Amino acid sequence: MSQPLPPNNFGAPNGGAPARPGMPQPPRPPMPNAGGMPQPPRPPVPNAGGGVAGSQAKPPLAKPAAKSGRRSSKKLRLGDALIQKGLINEEQLSQALALQKKSGKRLGSVLVEMHVVTETDIVQLLSEQLRIPFIDLSNYLIDPVIAKLIPEHVAKRHMLIPINKVGNKLTVAMVDPLNILAIDDIQLMTSLMVKAVVATPTDIKKALQDAYGAVAQQDKLMDDLEDIGSDASDDDLSQLGDLGENDAPIIRLCNLVISQAVQNGVSDIHIEPFEKELRIRYRQDGVLTTAMTPPKKATAAITSRLKIMSSLNIAEKRLPQDGRIKIKVVNKTIDLRVSVLPVIWGEKIVMRILDQSSLRVNLEELGFEPKTLERFKAGIASPYGILLVTGPTGSGKTTTLYSALTSLNSIDRNVMTAEDPVEYMLTGVNQVQCKPDIGLTFAAALRSFLRQDPDVIMVGEIRDFETAEIAIKASMTGHLVLSTLHTNDAPGTVGRITNMGIEPFMVTTSVLLIQAQRLVRKVCKDCKYEIKPRAEQIGQFGITPELLRRLDLPHINERNMLFYKGKGCETCGGSGSKGRVGVYEVMIMTERLRDIILNGGSTDDIRRQAIEDGMLSLRESALRKALIGMTSLEEVVRVTMGGH
Question: What is the pLDDT of residue 73?
Fold first, then answer.
């Protein structure tokens, strides 16, 4: 029988090598069977040092067995396996074996030093032979909380690092994934089931240094923070602004909170004081999770430090304040929009992370359905009129508007925006930061824009009658106007505008299209699996052959229809989802819609006519993404609950 290539053959000689001192003895040699013939050798047993004892030393009695099985097992030796894969040739193997005999090093190490193969080549070969997943640790950010599950000395002794915990399963990257003793030790000390994966020694050494360095840093930081508050009062916290980068644990903590959030792809940081604790949470892919809980006594110092970074008044604790922070994280300049709100037990701080490098300004990448994208592009190609983007806070409206502005931004157009706040800086676009406290409102900025010879105007949000009236009049006088509203869907936007006091005839004359949107979480590609829907589910979601044709999915029917869901893995942190994508409905103002609006039609009348005119609803857009495997049915229900 062919046996798996022992993982410690990363360094084992092709013909065996002396056992390392201090390691357990090799397994017993094979015993002769009833016919007097020796049995095939047993699979090698891993030792406590991360090696496989059977590959380290050859028991004398095993020689006859090795000879009789030489032909069948030769291809599984490290050197022969590398030749078989085309990674080395016979001459290189002979040179490596000669060097190995002189140096006493393992064959894998010698081949790497000869630069004929890489560590990754050898480990990937082991992964294939053992059918154990190989991971590239350079793509992982090890959570210090996960790293704490295994003591540092144990991790370094066995050359392993915990990378993820899902339920009662702990995923551990190892140099030797068949080290049963190490796996047993971890299972006993953590009471978790260990799932072993294989990684290169260099990657694991670096991960150990980074992870346990971060653990030590965070532990020391929390110890230092225990002293904050006992010696500092609210009156003397202003001195934090003059401290050096390494002078105060508060500064290190604030930098750690922000840098971890940026590296993890977090959108918002929440710092929340309660009666007996201070809680810091991250919002990632739309879901809030607890990141850390610093000592309660550090609340005032952390709040003051972040206010100083945001150029806010640290003495003002009764009124809300807004500010911005600009900081460099991993060679990237990050803007943070800071909001401070007085609550019962202090001041709650929310920081929105604005990463210019993560802004997607290509409309094709946002998740529009093909026909919906055509309708939207036709709208922004118009020389005049108003386009409205609607949806709740955090639904991606700003990204959609910036993407539209980027496609419109050219040397022959004067593009101007009035925003509060300006979230991203766009080259070639004249952006104005509105300041209502000094009278620079959206309406005031719009009036000034009309004297600046604009071609395209973007208004951050239409909040009142005055802004709506000026925006609509600007769109009726030869300007293309883009803006946002907070409504649930596109048909409901008409009623929202008329409730502001705008006459229906002005709405029908100026509005080109209204787009509503939401964000759904995408199914993780690494752990998604198929689900065959039941007949009642298909009926519940109203999936009919006619709907499938509307969704441009005529090849899908009740027999081959599948949905997808994530099991939870290392990539997605056990959530089953990774990243988000938009779902959209785009309602174009047609002649029939104008007639319904002018005659005082209801929102339901407008919706029915819009669907007849070719609009895909939010529910239909989300269903299409579920049918093609981008999101799950649970997300469809969550985001479009009550959708039509």
Answer: 38
